[in-house]
Amino acid sequence: MSEVKTLEWKNDELILxxxxxxxxxxxxxxCKDYKTLAEAIKILVVRxxxxxxxxxxxxxxxxxxxxxxxxxxxxxxxxxxxxxxEELAETRPTAVNLFWGLNRMEEKLESVKDLPQDQIKExxxxxxxxxxxxxxxxxxxxxxxxxxxxxxxxxxxxxxxAGALATAGYGTALGVVRYAxxxxxxxxxxxxxxxxxxxxxxxxxxxxxxxxxxxxLITDSMAGYAMxxxxxxxxxxxxxxxxxxGDVANKIGSYSISVLAKEHxxxxxxxxxxxxxxxxxxxxxxxxxxxxxxxxxRELFGTQTAPKEIDTFNPAxxxxxxxxxxxxITEVGVLRPPYNLSIPKAFKIKEEx
Length: 353
Ligand code: MRU
Hints:
Order of helices and strands: EEEHHHHHEHEHEHEEEHEHEEEEEH
Strand content: 15-25%
Structural class: alpha/beta
CATH class of the largest domain: Alpha Beta
Shape: globular
CATH superfamily of the largest domain: Translation initiation factor eif-2b, domain 2
Helix content: 40-55%
Bound molecules: 5-S-methyl-1-O-phosphono-5-thio-D-ribulose
CATH topology of the largest domain: Rossmann fold
Oligomer: single chain
Low-confidence stretches: none
Number of domains: 2
């Protein structure tokens, strides 16, 4: 396991490591109500698709605790929790794990809604704990399957942060790195910094340094040259949503490095749990892409780096078409193209387990 505790449920509160403060300061945000959590998701205190999904599940438990204090009838109590689910769903649009986690909680709520409120809360908490545990289990399996495609002396380019900080623990893409490293492979990570919000340099580099995994930090614009110089053997990054045809939405810049990798004959792997695959959409064009505040591009953490008057374009994610993706590493194995066949097969395997 990794030492990083991204989120923790304790004494009816959700404790989040504040990803906006790392790496200079290790601080925690305590969510005692679901609105505090909703705001934390919006401003990226907690971020990364699986971590958002797991936190939101605990957000529903927070709502149940609040509802018991703040409402009268059973109907008002249930309506309060349902409204909280709606509000949590409005925090970020791209990562499908958010909706997946909330749907599971809503289904659970539906199945226990006639029980006494104390019991409803306990059932919701059990479900959230299950989602949390399953996420860690999935990540370890992803690490194990991913290790099979990692060469002995691999030099791996990562993008954004798909580590313990982006999940309940261990990580997806960084889980593959972690697993291979722990197996004694002589791997070296090239972490790109990931403008505009620097999840690569602030978070991935922090995790790598903390665990003594050999790594080099590069700026995003250095990735192509590093590939040309023969410094990179493979790419591994995470995903926020994967369409049925294997198109992958992930942090802005994933598309650019994938196209560059193909040009240089370097394999591109995406590491994600099946909960990141949206079986309701055919292809990446249908994935909603979050547009974030224009100042994230004009500024670097509050310091102005461009004229205030300049317009900016700030999509938080892009879509890498499946033709650029060598394999999708999941908890049931490494899926290969054609993804419209391997994805449904993977869900079947999972169902049968
Ligand atoms: O905007 P963020 O920091 O939430 O974006 C995170 C990513 O793009 C990750 O790569 C993705 O969510 C996978 S995390 C295991």
